[in-house]
Amino acid sequence: MDILIKNGTIVTDSSIYKSDILLQNGKISQIEKQILNAENCEVIDASGKYIFPGGIDPHVHMDLPTWAGNSCDNFESGSKAAIAGGTTCFLDFVTPARNESYLEALKKRKIEAENSWIDYGLHMSITSWNENSKNEIKQCVENEGVTSFKAYMAYKKSVGIDDSALLKAMDSISDNSGILMVHCENGDLIEFLENRTEKHSPHFLNSPDEHAEIHNQDTEIEAVSRILLYHSYNDCLLYLVHISLEESINLIKGFNSPDICVETCPHYLLLDDSRYKLPNFEAAKYVISPPLRDKSNNEALWEALGNFDVTAIGSDHCPFNFKGQKDFGKSDFRKIPNGAGGVEHRMPLLYTYGVEKGKISLNQFVYFTSTHIAEVFGLNKRKGFIEIGYDADLVIWDSEKKQIISAKNHHQRCDYNIYEGMKIKGLPEKVIVGGELVFDNGNFIPPKRKSEFLFRELPVL
Length: 461
Ligand code: URP
Ligand code: ZN
Ligand code: ZN
Known about the structure:
The strands form two sheets. Strands 1, 2, 3, 4, 5, 14, 15, 16 and 17 form a nine-stranded mixed sheet that branches. An eight-stranded parallel sheet has the order 6-7-8-9-10-11-12-13. The chain contains twelve helices and 17 strands. It has one domain: TIM Barrel. By secondary structure, it is of the alpha/beta class. Helix content is 29%, strand content 22%. A hairpin with a 2-residue loop joins strand 2 and strand 3. The structure holds N-(aminocarbonyl)-beta-alanine and zinc ion (ZN) (2 copies). The site of one zinc ion has 4 residues, from loops.
């Protein structure tokens, strides 16, 4: 059924105004101060509520295979958690095995993603390089709508690539006007330091804190400088994922390139490295890469958002259960699967601790969580905006609604939450996906429509 939303306050990346919105056949069909002539539609009264374009999470890892089992949200559970937090579209990854065809891996990943409740796109990870890679990148962009790629400068033993492959990938991606996402950590240095711990201080192997000691600031800063250097010889568009340090931001700012987009995540804005001192292996819950940093970086990252030096918020949602997954590394921190959940609280946390605290504006909130993501990842003709003809993916936001985050009430399928006990003020009241109301005051309503794999356009930075 069509939906008429009345009396809400529309917030876009550049304006705030009161208007009615009519949704027909999955699209936004009318935006008028007062819509009086709509018939046969469900009417939602959004008085006193904000209406945001549905959130787009640019960085999630559902069902990611690791040595400790797959990340514990699949596309269905993860997409429902996303909806509960106002996210109506996300971008996950294809992770080909070494020397597997990118296109073959894409085909398989698309099947895994089919049970998502929200539309999804897939970034292609460049996990190895061979004589077919150049052509496969071209095919991804031209025939598959996969216009973004990902390279890991860390994890050399599994998905990471060396610099020779990285440079070739940059070259091919720029030839095809795509964008390369980069995980910036010096994998060789990390491996060297891990081996040194094993050899000289093996008693530290059972300490998750050692993960943070080894993935230290230098490993990120060096990798950021190196990718910037490579960028100076190559005009490949870059999206630097999960940047965690003030110094990284300063380096990128100093480079002053319009062709680089910087992402950070709520956990780097809100949590700090004191978590690694928690007893009873609890620190393993925060074993993520890069690790949490000291408090000074939290503030610096908020400032960078306020100044548009960082313009994208990804959750890097990659949850693993504490029992049965994180504890895989109980006697060797190197075996703790890296990652934590966050897709559900990306928007409420940014709203509460960013907008409510006056660190970012409402328009910036929309820009960082939706509109700019749509632009960077080639979705800006369909999503990220509240305009006629756009997908009817909308969030009706109750700025007064409060909650305390807990694994007891979250929708992520994980036995802990890194934000446990944190207060949020500002949550979705209703969420509309593809013109259907799928979340209403805490209740999920299964969609009739099937979610779509998004064939994406070229990035616009
Ligand atoms: O620790 C993390 N971030 N795990 C997910 C994979 C990645 O590096 O983005
Ligand atoms: Zn990463
Ligand atoms: Zn990630």
